[in-house]
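Hi support team,

I'm filing this because I wasn't sure whether my run with magnesium ion finished correctly. The job status page said complete, but I'd like someone to confirm that the output block is well-formed before I use it downstream. Pasting the exact inputs I used:
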Amino acid sequence: MMKMTPRERPRDIRKALKLLRRHMRRHAGPLALIALLVVVSASANVYGTYLLKPAVNDYILPGDLAGLLKFLMFMGAVYAAGVAASFGYSQLMVRVAQKIVREIRDELFSKVQKLPLRFFDARTHGELMSRFTSDIDTISEAFNNSFTVLIHSFVVITGTVAVMVRLNALLSAIVLAVFLGMAFVIRYSGRKSHAHFSQQQRHMGSLNGFLEEMVEGQKVVKVFNHEDSAFREFQSRNARLKKAAASAMTYSGILIPLVVSISYFNYALTACIGAFFAISGMIDLGALTSYLVYVRQTAMPINQFSQQANFILAALSGAERIFEIMEEPEEVDRGKATLERTAEGWAWRKPDSEIVPFRGDVRFHGVVFGYQPGHPILKGIDLYAKPGQKIALVGSTGAGKTTIANLINRFYDVTAGSITYDGIDVRDIALNDLRRSVAVVLQDTNLFTGTIAENIAYGNPGADREQIVHAAQLANADSFIQRLPDGYDTMLTGNGANLSQGQRQLISIARAAASDPPVLILDEATSSVDTHTEKLIEAGMDRLMENRTVFVIAHRLSTVRNAKAILVLEDGAILERGSHEELLGQGGRYAELYTGQFEGMSIAG
Ligand SMILES: Nc1ncnc2c1ncn2[C@@H]1O[C@H](COP(=O)(O)OP(=O)(O)O)[C@@H](O)[C@H]1O
Ligand SMILES: [Mg+2]
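And here is everything the job wrote out:
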């Protein structure tokens, strides 16, 4: 059955080849052996057919039965060698192909882990996922089949043509003319069906994208009663897909019968002309027998050859896209200062081996930052958090609070100004050590598939059950976990879909507590828990964070009242700073926000 082949061309074949070549070079030995076995198998194929000529001329026509039997045994041996070779190369190829694909996958995953968040901001998840799925699949397909099929059909086609010309040049000219016509038809109809095929791919992508959104957003669909309109939209996308798929299939459906008919026509034509030649003595019967078999055999390789070339081009496009990711700049990690645990606690070891005691002093010096060039989000931030202080960041949505948190552990690097940590520029600290020393409870909770205990231990992979429970107690998560049927061994799936939003937050706080970090950043970490629980968490955190530095980004201003300093952020700049009482006294933005919240609460209450 003819498969639909994607019609895709890499933009830069050399670049695409670079990735594949690098991986192929590692398996150069086995690949060379495979190529050799393919050549053996294809040659046996061509040679076996050629042997029909002496079989007919030297044994069958003279009636030499004993000789024929011996000769048949020889022919059998030739075919057996071909079969053995093809068995060998197909087995080998499967292994090598899977190894190469696995290496590419590993390499891609490890690369993706090293890319900065900036990279992920600019791409959809679907886009990145398709590098791992469809692009790798096309490469896998190309290695599994195309590599050997291409060599095989090349050898068969050239071998056959050479032998045919040797057998009878005149007859060959006729046969070749028909073959050329056939190749042309394959090419033409291939072009047509490929155009429809890429249409089909596009519609398939659009249908899948819609499906994904609808499945994820099913709740919202139901809330707004959009089932019917969603279904109508789905129907219309589905109909477009059906139309494109039907046209694609029509062309490929025409192709196969057409090729088959042409090859039968070729066969009949060759037989007639050959018979005429044989009668007039221009060709012997043996040669004609081989000839007719060749004619029937050659349609297949021509078809395969053109098909596999497309698979290979598609794989090259996939390789090119993967290679583009491989070439992306990684997170800059030139820092040399490392974090060490000494007898007195944490300490920094500077590149010159000087040991600086860890204090947890974080300062921003005129920090300017924007996610996109030319769009500054933070416009000159100066702030300091002295060791052991609790600093609160408040301000309206979009003011830049999360952005400040993002800069401390270098999710992004500042555009201008600097951030120092115990007097060391954060860019001079080894990235792993920097991140190890700062635990961030992110605004969006992310839990992984695994038990609750495993999720908490994510913050400290060496933690034992006692430490895990202790961390959960600090986060005030222990009591609700205990009440779950499986307690700490409750399985979480789908980002903790079986928990409430607040419970998910408690687990992510416990995870941060388990990592026992010198600096903690809580970004609206308690926005979904009730005020009572929030107070308990705060008490737990205060115990945990004694003598450590904490940044709290909070929505509910009541929770930041006891902060050492409150920074009011507006539009990327610090508008006010001071303690709760000082800011209230000033009667500025903070006072406005604070009283506004309480008014809002009294209306709501
Ligand atoms: N990854 C990002 N890429 C581009 N812009 C962003 C990104 N994250 C946040 N922003 C923009 O930066 C501004 C500040 O966002 P953020 O720091 O998240 O505010 P908040 O104070 O609510 O935490 C917003 O205008 C937002 O649109
Ligand atoms: Mg935020």
